[in-house]
Amino acid sequence: QKKRRAATARRQHLKSAMLQLAATEIEKEAAAKEVEKQNYLAEHCPPLSLPGSMQELQDLCRKLHSKIESVDEERYDIEVKLQKTNKELEDLSLKLFDLKGKFKRPPLRRVRMSADAMLRALLGSKHKVCMDLRANLKQVKKEDTEKEKDLRDVGDWRKNIEEKSGMEGRKKMFEAGE
């Protein structure tokens, strides 16, 4: 038990020491970011000095507007680049996913739905056309083939058998063979 207590105490001491180090590192990073921000602002944004005359104020406004326009152009260009790279990343990740072949098809439920209901679900209130698929089919007349005529002429199979049974039927078959 003493070993366990010592090990847990040591572990807790190490954990607290690591947390203290992490906290000091976070503070250092925040201070460094602040210094970097101040340096950037000092470099790119000189202190504002308001001139006294109207002409100088107008010149200052023109300069500021031109800077704003250039910054907006840069921002727009960067946004377009970002969108383009995001699209390329999506395409490449899809290709990678396809190459891996580990795409799991989601389980689909069977839904019995008519064509009208499906169009209504897809198009909403815009759907007015009735999808009666059999309405547009052509009417085709069935032509009688020779086999069907033969079958009709033969008629009921029982009559044929009764006619062929006995001596009279054999005589008819013999005469038909000649």
TrEMBL record:
Record-level GO BP terms: cardiac muscle contraction; skeletal muscle contraction
SUPFAM superfamilies: Troponin coil-coiled subunits
Coiled coil ranges: 14-102
Keyword Coiled coil on entry: yes
Gene3D superfamilies for the chain: 1.20.5.350, 6.10.250.180
Transmembrane segments: none
Keywords, in A-Z order: Acetylation, Actin-binding, Coiled coil, Muscle protein
Pfam families the record matches: Troponin (PF00992)
Family the UniProt entry places it in: Belongs to the troponin I family.
Subunit structure: Binds to actin and tropomyosin.
Descriptive protein name: Troponin I, fast skeletal muscle
The species this protein was found in: Probosciger aterrimus
